[in-house]
Write a structure and sequence with these properties.
The complex is a heterodimer of chains A (204) and B (82).
Chain A lengths: L7 H5 L4 H23 L7 H17 L10 H22 L4 H9 L9 H4 L3 H17 L2 H11 L4 H8 L3 H21 L4 H8 L2
Helix pairs in contact in A: 2-3, 2-4, 3-4, 5-8, 7-10, 8-10
Chain B lengths: L9 H13 L7 H16 L6 H12 L1 H16 L2
Helix pairs in contact in B: 2-3, 2-4, 3-4
The chains are: A mainly alpha (204), B mainly alpha (82).
Bound molecules: zinc ion.
C-alpha cells in the first residue's frame, strides 16, 4: 500500500501486531524521507542524527495519536511533529552553553546606545525616534528577566531554552514574554507610534 | 550564542518591533500551532482561503521564528511530494 492508501490512525492502533509493525515501518520511511529532504542543506545533521530524530518522532506521534483530528493528511500532521522534534534538538545543541547570568547581563545592556549597530538607526529621523522610544520602554517597562527573555528572542534563542534558563514553566514564560511585549507595545502606542510607522521605518 | 557583547543588527531590532506591532491580547502558543500547522500548510498549498483558526496560525508564524522555521521545512517536504 502507498502512504495515501493507509488508514494510519487505525493501522497504528491495530491489535494485530503484524499490521501495527508494518504501519510503523511505513511511517518510519515517510518521516525519514521527509526529514532528509528538509534537513539536507544543513551540514550538522548526520545519518545517525536522522535515525534518532525519526525514532523519537515515532514515539511522540504514537503518544498523541488521539490528538489527530483528521483536519489534514495524517502524514502531514506526523511530519510536522517530526520536524518539531528534529529542530528542537538541533536548537538545543546550539544554545546549550549559554547561562542565565550571561543572558541577564546581556539584557541589562539592551537599552544602551552601543548595543545597537550603526545601521539600526540609519539616516531616517522616524527610525531614530522609534528606536529611542523602544530603548526607553525596554529600560522602564521591563523587569530584568523580561529584558533577558526579550533579548533571547531577539537573538533567536529557542523558546525552550529561554524557559530552561529562567527556571520557570513554559506557560509562565509565555505569560512573561507576552506581558513584556504588551507593555512595550503600549509604550510605543502612547508615544503615538503605530504598526504602520514601524513597517515603514524598517521596510517590513 | 553569539558573543554577548555583539551588537544587535538592524534586522533584529526590526524583527522585535514587528513582533510588537503584531502582538495581540490573545495569542496561540507553539503547541497549539504545532497541532494545526499541517492543516495550515495544506490550505496554503491549495491556495484556499483561511478561516479564523488558520488566521491565528498565520499570526503565530509571523511572530514565532521557531514555528516559522518548522513550517517552512514542512512546506519544502510537501512541495517535494507534489
Ligand atoms: Zn511558535
Amino acid at each position: 500500500m502507498t502512504p495515501t492508501e493507509i488508514n494510519w490512525p487505525v493501522a497504528l492502533r491495530a491489535t494485530d501486531s503484524g499490521e501495527q509493525a508494518a504501519a510503523m515501518r511505513a511511517l518510519r520511511d515517510v518521516l525519514h524521507h521527509g526529514l532528509r529532504i528538509a534537513l539536507s542543506s544543513r551540514g550538522d545533521v548526520s545519518e545517525a542524527h536522522l535515525e534518532d530524530f525519526v525514532q523519537e518522532s515515532l514515539i511522540r506521534i504514537l503518544d498523541r495519536l488521539d490528538q489527530f483530528q483528521g483536519r489534514s493528511k495524517f502524514t502531514t500532521w506526523a511530519q510536522a511533529i517530526a520536524l518539531n522534534t528534529a529542530f528542537t534538538e538541533l536548537r538545543r545543541k546550539r544554545w546549550q552553553d549559554v547561562s542565565l547570568d550571561a543572558l541577564l547581563a546581556d539584557g541589562e545592556r539592551l537599552a544602551e546606545p552601543g548595543m545597537m549597530a550603526e545601521d539600526v538607526l540609519g539616516a531616517q529621523e522616524d527610525r531614530q525616534h522609534l528606536v529611542a522610544v523602544l530603548r526607553e520602554a525596554i529600560e522602564h517597562e521591563l523587569t530584568p528577566k523580561q529584558r533577558a527573555a526579550i533579548l533571547g528572542e531577539l537573538r533567536e534563542m529557542p523558546f525552550d531554552q529561554i524557559v530552561e534558563l529562567l527556571g520557570t514553566s513554559r506557560s509562565a514564560a509565555y505569560k512573561m514574554l507576552h506581558d513584556a511585549r504588551r507593555a512595550l507595545k503600549q509604550r510605543l502606542q502612547a508615544a503615538g507610534i503605530t504598526g504602520t510607522d514601524i513597517q515603514n521605518a524598517f521596510n517590513l | 550564542m553569539k558573543p554577548p557583547d555583539q551588537q544587535l543588527t538592524s534586522a533584529q531590532v526590526g524583527s522585535v518591533l514587528k513582533m510588537l506591532a503584531l502582538t495581540t491580547e490573545r495569542e496561540l502558543n507553539c503547541s497549539e500551532c504545532l497541532q494545526h500547522v499541517g492543516e495550515f500548510a495544506e490550505t496554503r498549498l491549495a491556495s484556499q482561503p483561511v478561516d479564523a483558526v488558520m488566521a491565528s496560525i498565520e499570526q503565530h508564524l509571523a511572530l514565532c521564528p521557531e514555528c516559522r522555521e518548522e513550517f517552512e521545512a514542512l512546506m519544502t517536504i510537501l512541495q517535494a511530494g507534489q
